[in-house]
Amino acid sequence: FGIATDENFVITTTNRKEITEDNFSELVQDGVTLYLLQSVDQMLLSATKERIDFLPHYDTLVKSGMYEYYASEGQNPLPFALAELIDNSLSATSRNTGIRSIQIKLLFDDSQGKPAVAVIDNGRGMTSKQLNNWAVYRLSKFTRQGDFESDHSGYVRPLPVPRSLNSDISYFGVGGKQAVFFVGQSARMISKPADSQDVHELVLSKEDF
C-alpha cells in the first residue's frame, strides 16, 4: 500500500469500527468493505463505492402470500391458494399418455406430524435441479436462460380454456411457495422423475428460516 514503516494507520469498517486482533473474526467477513486510514475519524478524500451482496429476507417468502391473497377483493382467498398448488400438478400431468391423477388430501392425524394439505399427482416428476429451481423466489416456471433448467422444461402452455383441467388455473401468479406459506408453515416437495430411480425431497420451513 506504499505506507512508510514509521507511519501510523488503522483499518476500519465502513461504520468506522477499527479492526483489532480481538474483533477481527467478527468484523472481517467475505465481501466486507474496509478502509485503510491514518485515523478512525479521518475524512475521506473522495467518494467510495461498496459492493453489496444480499439474499431476500425470509419474510419476503413466508409473508408475501398474505398480501397477495388478502388483496382478493373480499373473496375467500383460500381457494386461490389451493388453486396455485393444483396448478403445479396440472402442469406436471399435462402430457401424461395415460390416466391423469391429481389428489388433494387434508391430513389431521397428529401422529404423523402437524395437520397438512397434500397435493399428489402422477406427473413426470422433477429432477434435483428442477426442484432446486422451484425453491427460488420469483423464478418463473416458463423462464429459460443460460444453464437454467426449467422446473417445467418441455411443458407447453395450453390454449386458454377458462378454469378447465386443460388450462393453467393460477390466478394471482404468486406461485406455490407463497400459497404454501399462506396456508401453513412449511413446504415439503417429494418428486421422482419418470426416467430416474432417484427420489428427491425438498423442505422449506418457516422454523428453519
Automatic annotation (TrEMBL):
One GO biological-process annotation of the entry reads: double-strand break repair
On the tree of life, the source organism's domain of life is Eukaryota
Please give the InterPro entries that the UniProt record associates with this protein: HATPase_C_sf (IPR036890), SMCHD1 (IPR038892)
Give coiled-coil spans as residue ranges: none
Q: PANTHER family attached here?
A: STRUCTURAL MAINTENANCE OF CHROMOSOMES FLEXIBLE HINGE DOMAIN-CONTAINING PROTEIN 1 (PTHR22640)
Q: What is this protein called?
A: SMHD1 protein
Gene designation: Smchd1
